[in-house]
Amino acid sequence: MLPLSLFRIKRFPSGNLGLFLLGIGMTGPTFILAFFLTQVIGMTELRAGLIISVLAVASMICSVLAAKGAAKLGPRIFSVTGMILLALGTYLLAGLTTESSTMDYIWRLVIAGMGTGMAIANLTATTVLLPPPEKTTIAMGIGTMARTIGSALGIAVLVTLLSQSMQTEMASAKTELAERIASSSLSGASKAGLAEALQQQAGSRRAASGSASASMQGLLDQWDRKEREQLQAASPDAAGRVKEAFAKDKVELQGLLPQLQAMVNTHTTAAFGLVFEVSCLALLLGAVCAFVNGRKAVEPAREAERVENALRSPQ
User: Fold this and answer.
1) What is residue 309's predicted lDDT score, i.e. its pLDDT?
2) Where are the beta strands (DSSP E) in 16-103?
3) pTM of the entire structure?
4) Domain at 10-166+279-312: CATH code
5) Helix/strand/coil (H, E, C) string of 242-277?
């Protein structure tokens, strides 16, 4: 049974709240980023996983270095700095676009991974050391549970936020698409067909999947099919006029489609950017909890040994 008396210990609740917020915040650079890479950029699951694994590698390296530093400087500086770095890396993910390169993902994830390695071990260790030694195992279990619940809740909240944000952004995208198409020099029938095709694309979850050129080529192919169908149905005298009309529209379309695709991409990335910013906010609140929870300097030898042992314990 959970001993509620532990929560009367000074700084113990703030430590667990920090772990809870850490679990929520880490959903951004892991789960939400994976969704962005696969569903928006169009990467394979394997490639997306390899890119996100950069975070884990950076985390492992920094956790080893932070464990050694915490025994000398105390864990507070590392847990707070780690939270801030993780928040920074998550915030920078909001700047990603459909044109971002692999290195744009990697350097952001390195920052987030460094913060993860510093924050998890040190915040957990600081929280574990607050209760009496005989309650250390229970305290560690509570901390792990807090972070796990935060991760589960983070997925639910952030995915819901992403869904709502995507609906709002796609509604705005449809309005902008309609206005831009209406101001073009396409024929009336071509405007109606293009508006219908692009609004269906904007309503899809994979609205920005692939490059703009691929989407443009798909619509140009559709235009070619319509031209062939109308030429087959037209009389020999009208065939020339049909070809001329389609040739004029195709020239306009080749310049217009990249602009329309860019509008859809901008709104799609804006929806994901909002989710990353919310994750960043949770992590900044967690940094405040880590500051309240932590210790400034080195404790006596017995406490320093407990810090080192706690840091080495599996999370």
Assistant:
1) 56
2) none
3) 0.79
4) 1.20.1250.20
5) HHHHHHHHHHHHHHHHHHHHHHHHHHHHHHHHHHHH
